[in-house]
């Protein structure tokens, strides 16, 4: 029983990280219908920038994350302006390849600047907490709480502010949004900014319990794709729910099935879903 | 005259390829060249699917690895005759390709790319974790060189070079025949508009599946050759990094062109050799190149040259209009093959 609760807690932690990454991915997909393969590289850059701010510039954990969020958000904006905007009318195969190009570049860049070795991020929240006879590390609790706060803020922003509403409008109907006078270019920039920021938050939160290395985004991005297909491409609640579903199934699968094959669970899940329903669960009409 | 020129170019390239080992005498360069021939075969497979049929498969390295591991396991663990194992490896890859394609092709566009990316990752993880069969991260050692065919043996690097070259030429020939047949036209029709293709009575699923299986067949062929040439394989050959490498070769040369895979592979491999000091950082250059190419020259070097020729031919045609009828006919016959390339 204790193992079960511990694993559920772990699932909640991993699920929070997955949800944050998937949210960024699904926002971009909703607006531009681009599967941003470079999103994993943004996640990786987020981890490295936070680490660099803490180690090289001696910043505290939170300001370091803030810098990282801004920097990665800016990379996202540059990506939109320099690559995806010029390609907006190209055949769909082109922006996928362009995104792969960016991914390869950012990974090589990280390896060049920070080296290929695995690095640990020192977290000020390494303490162990006892709760109801169970032991939790502070960092894991922090991940869960911060992720929920970020998701709530994002939700408020999208639902309660005018700017947020323009994002929703554009994801529902691009031409319609254009007709009622929404500056679609500006919305696209804003979306990439948020998307990059979310990736940076996710990786900065997860880095202290994982490691920082150039390939850290590989598995995460693939799983995020699984999640947004699970939750419906472009759907925001879908990304959150999907993230937690995957988090739980992975941590339980690792305990009760096989630790070696836990990374495969997500992909098998996806293969099954797409085999049964080729447009993903909860697909919103014919995109 | 243009057609004649094209034949000369092909002939020159062929002669160069045949006499290359004699010209350099440098065993390392021959090794690199053989390896790039092997990659080219895989790139042709990717080209048929992504370039002509319009489905970007990111599981290509996975099928490459299946071909390589099938050959490796059959020859090392069951001591099978090399050529029997070779044929069986191709059959295994194609059958797995058929099964994957059956499901994967129900999805479209982004879903297809994501689906195949995940399939590729599953293949990689299975090879990596299935220790008892594939030796996992230790890799598979001691794969034999190609067996003798009659009196010809393939033990020396030189003979392997010619073996790979002839298989490559055969592949290009097969590719040429496919592209310029009704089947190839059908694939292009599917790429341009699947709905339209369906309306004019093309069974899209059957044709897409055929293209997918052919593409995996070439990936398997390339993988099997790789295994017998390098004679050591590890799970890394199934990693998405390899898919991205192949994609880079294809994009630089020209996606959806017949000579693109050759041009791109030779060029990128050669530049990588020159930039060897960069090694792991080569993507610092090739990543942006990939992105820029797709923005400015989506059809790569070959496509850029073809459209440039086209423009020039168009201009000469306009001038020739004033001239005699004969000249005009001549000019239009010049353009015809160019148009073909552009459509293709």
Automatic annotation (TrEMBL), chain A:
The chain crosses the membrane at residues 12-32, 65-84, 96-114, 134-158, 179-205, 264-283. One of its GO terms (molecular function) is transmembrane transporter activity. It is a multi-pass membrane protein. The lineage of its organism: Bacteria, Bacillati, Bacillota, Bacilli, Bacillales. Belongs to the binding-protein-dependent transport system permease family. LivHM subfamily. This is Amino acid/amide ABC transporter membrane protein 1 (HAAT family). Pfam families: BPD_transp_2. Keywords: Amino-acid transport, Cell membrane, Membrane, Transmembrane, Transmembrane helix, Transport. It is found in: Cell membrane. One of its GO terms (cellular component) is plasma membrane. GO terms for biological process: amino acid transport.
TrEMBL record, chain B:
InterPro entries: ABC_transp_permease (IPR001851), LivM-like (IPR043428). It is a multi-pass membrane protein. This is Amino acid/amide ABC transporter membrane protein 2 (HAAT family). It is found in: Cell membrane. The keyword rRNA-binding does not apply. Keywords: Cell membrane, Membrane, Transmembrane, Transmembrane helix. GO terms for cellular component: plasma membrane. The keyword Iron does not apply. The chain crosses the membrane at residues 7-23, 29-49, 56-76, 82-104, 111-127, 161-179, 209-234, 246-271, 283-308. One of its GO terms (molecular function) is branched-chain amino acid transmembrane transporter activity. Pfam families: BPD_transp_2.
């Amino acid at each position: 029983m204790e193992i079960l609760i511990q694993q559920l807690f772990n699932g909640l932690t991993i699920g929070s990280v997955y949800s944050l990454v998937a949210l960024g991915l699904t926002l971009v997909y909703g607006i531009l219908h681009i599967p941003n393969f470079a999103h994993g590289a943004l996640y990786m850059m987020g981890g490295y920038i936070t680490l660099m701010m803490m180690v090289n510039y001696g910043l505290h954990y939170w300001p370091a994350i803030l810098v990282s969020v801004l920097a990665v958000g800016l990379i996202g904006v540059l990506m939109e302006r320099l690559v995806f905007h010029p390609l907006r009318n190209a055949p769909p195969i082109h922006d996928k390849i362009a995104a792969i190009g960016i991914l390869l570049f950012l990974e090589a860049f990280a390896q060049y600047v920070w080296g290929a070795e695995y690095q640990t991020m020192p977290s000020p929240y390494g303490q162990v907490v006892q709760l109801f006879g169970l032991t939790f590390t502070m960092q894991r609790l922090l991940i869960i709480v911060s992720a929920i706060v970020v998701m709530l803020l994002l939700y408020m922003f999208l639902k309660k502010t005018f700017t947020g509403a323009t994002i929703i409008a554009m994801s529902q109907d691009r031409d319609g949004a254009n007709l009622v006078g929404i500056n679609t270019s500006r919305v696209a920039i804003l979306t990439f900014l948020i998307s990059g920021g979310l990736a940076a938050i996710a990786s900065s939160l997860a880095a202290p319990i994982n490691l920082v290395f150039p390939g850290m985004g590989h598995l995460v991005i693939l799983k995020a794709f699984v999640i947004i297909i699970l939750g419906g491409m472009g759907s925001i609640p879908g990304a959150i729910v999907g993230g937690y579903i995957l988090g739980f199934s992975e941590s339980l699968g690792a305990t009760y099935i096989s630790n070696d094959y836990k990374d495969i669970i997500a992909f098998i899940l996806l293969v099954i879903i797409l085999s049964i329903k080729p447009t993903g669960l909860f697909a919103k009409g014919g995109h | 005259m243009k057609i004649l020129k094209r034949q000369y170019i092909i002939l020159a390239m062929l002669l160069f390829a045949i006499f290359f080992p004699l010209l350099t005498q440098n065993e390392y360069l021959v090794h690199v060249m053989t390896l790039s021939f092997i990659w080219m075969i895989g790139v042709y497979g990717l080209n048929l699917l992504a370039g002509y049929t319009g489905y970007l498969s990111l599981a290509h390295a996975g099928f490459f690895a299946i071909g390589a591991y099938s050959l490796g396991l059959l020859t090392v663990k069951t001591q099978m005759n090399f050529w029997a194992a070779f044929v069986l490896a191709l059959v295994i890859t194609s059958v797995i390709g058929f099964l994957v394609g059956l499901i994967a092709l129900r999805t479209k566009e982004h879903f297809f790319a994501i689906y195949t990316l995940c399939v590729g990752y599953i293949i990689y993880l299975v090879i990596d974790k299935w220790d008892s069969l594939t030796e996992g991260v230790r890799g598979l050692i001691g794969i034999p060189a190609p067996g003798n065919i009659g009196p010809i043996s393939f033990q020396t690097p030189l003979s392997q070079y010619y073996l790979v070259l002839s298989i490559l030429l055969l592949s290009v020939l097969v590719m040429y025949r496919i592209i310029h047949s009704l089947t190839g036209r059908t694939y292009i029709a599917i790429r341009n508009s699947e709905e339209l293709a369906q309306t004019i009575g093309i069974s899209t699923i059957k044709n897409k599946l055929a293209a997918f299986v052919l593409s995996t067949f070439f990936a398997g062929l390339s993988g099997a050759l790789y295994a017998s040439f390098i004679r050591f394989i590890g799970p890394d050959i199934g990693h998405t990094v390899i898919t991205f490498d192949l994609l880079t070769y294809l994009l630089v040369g020209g996606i959806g062109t017949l000579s693109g895979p050759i041009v791109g592979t030779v060029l990128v491999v050669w530049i990588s050799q020159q930039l060897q000091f960069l090694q792991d950082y080569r993507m610092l250059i090739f990543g942006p190149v990939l992105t820029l190419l797709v923005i400015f020259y989506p059809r790569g070097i070959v496509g850029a040259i073809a459209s440039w020729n086209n423009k020039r031919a168009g201009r000469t045609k306009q001038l020739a209009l004033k001239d005699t009828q004969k000249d005009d006919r001549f000019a239009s016959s010049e353009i015809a093959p160019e148009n073909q390339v552009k459509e293709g």
